[in-house]
TrEMBL record:
Its EC number is 3.4.11.18. Transmembrane segments: none annotated. It comes from Thioclava sediminum. It catalyses: Release of N-terminal amino acids, preferentially methionine, from peptides and arylamides. Keywords: Aminopeptidase, Hydrolase, Metal-binding, Protease. The gene is map. This is Methionine aminopeptidase.
Amino acid sequence: MDDTQGRTTKDGIRIYDQSDFAGMRASSQVTAQILDEVADLVEPGVTTAALDAFIERRVGELGATSATIGYRGYQHASCISVNHVVCHGIPGDKKLKDGDIINIDVTVILDGWFGDSSRMYVAGNLSRKAERLIQVTHDSLMVGIEQVKPGNTFGDIGHAIQKFVESNRMSVVRDFCGHGVGKVFHAPPNVLHYGRAGSGAMLEEGMIFTIEPMVNLGRPETKVLADDWTAVTRDKSLSAQFEHSVGVTADGCEIFTTSPAGRFHPTWR
Ligand code: MF3
Ligand code: CO
Ligand code: CO
């Protein structure tokens, strides 16, 4: 990697070129393929450690490496966040139960490019309230992505997401945000999922970042458990999240982490 190449905006946001977009496309499609494949394994009785083991194996088989193994001491190829876990759930020996909703978040590195995405999955039967939460969370990401074009600001993205979520009487988590991505895992800017229209840095062609709203059925507050990773809702309400890595184009954006099998939304089943 050569950090001296390319341009960085006054806000410290890197501007990438067409060949960089090709690199992001390739790594992100590995992530998306693995997220497609793991869907077949999600069912009551399976452990989140088993899901993570599958993911770790497929990352290697597809010629990539895990961005999360060894990242700040994290030891797994995925974060798996069940029910009231907001994000950064650690895979373990607990078995999924009927009706559990889970987010699986995978980041791979291929040829130096980081592809970061997460989706929701369901074990067994989905309750009506969980279905609504998943739908609103998915749609909030898409509403945010609709704002991604040169001339809009990062505040436009956050504002659109917050307005959509709150109009559905759910809440947006403030304690975690999206981020610049590309040749590094977490780069400027912080991509907030709430905020004021027109605020924040201006979007420019060539920027690459994630949008990854976390939405709660109850209040937005979170806390991190004693393991220093697992973030949960303080009020124990259900939480959901979807994440795409996107790049700003001349007239909109490219979603790098689209599902090759059309399985991004869990109602594909
Ligand atoms: N993939 C997460 C994100 O969306 C980060 C996970 S870091 C880990 O930014 F160490 F918890 F895996
Ligand atoms: Co991310
Ligand atoms: Co992620």
